[in-house]
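pasting for ref
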Amino acid sequence: MPSAPSQQSDPQPWWPYLHGVAAIGLFLRLVVALGSDQINHPDEIFQYLEQAHRMVFGYGYIPWEYRFGLRSLIIPIALSLPLRLLQVLQLDRPDIYIPLIKTILCVISISLIYGLYSLGRQTVSESVGRMAAIIASFWHELVVFAHKPTPECLATYLLIGALVCLVNRPQWHHSRWHLSSWTAVGLGVMAAGVVALRLQYAPAVLVLGLAMVILWRSRPAQMALVIATFGLTLMGVGYVDYLTWGIWFGSYYNNYLYNQTYGISSLFGRVFFSTISVR
């Protein structure tokens, strides 16, 4: 009976205290999220949470960006799923669904701890990976913003995940759908997600693609799988805009049209940190 394809084993097991560090990081994030209602930017409420609430409960404030189709509904749709579930269970009260949304986002943010640990140990050393995990667990900005449903935060988690997939340097086996194939799929999906959530991060994804060409140059089938999943994911994003705004990639087109061509955003003025006085 032929033997199974050889696996490229990790020479060193994962840090046994990593889960404990992640648990502490999650605890700190939940303390901040559930113990305060601090708002760093109105967008986190009106552009995302409010729109998810409006989808489920049928009422809510509609910012001008959603009246003219300047924003994708991907994040509001994702946030509406737990709200819909609570509505079905007749638990749709603010004292239940607000903590639940915050908790879900905090749990998602923990992926940054695992991702940076894996990234550090694979690119430098085990000790660097451990230090990265500890810093990600306790760093104040990562703790404070963990429960924010902003595209900057969510795109950052995906970008780190894509980097982890990149440095895994998977092996291709034609005899089966190997775990490394899922690594390539993950890289393509997460890289596309970064661009979809935050178009300003596209240069980082371009660098990611160039690094893939260098690191995976001997794995053309693997790179083809990444490119295919990247393209299919972006097409899915464009299709969401088609269903919601009536045009493929409509939110990106309208954003450029209204803000860059028409200059609508400049009508609201600009505030610079140097002009803000703290009292």
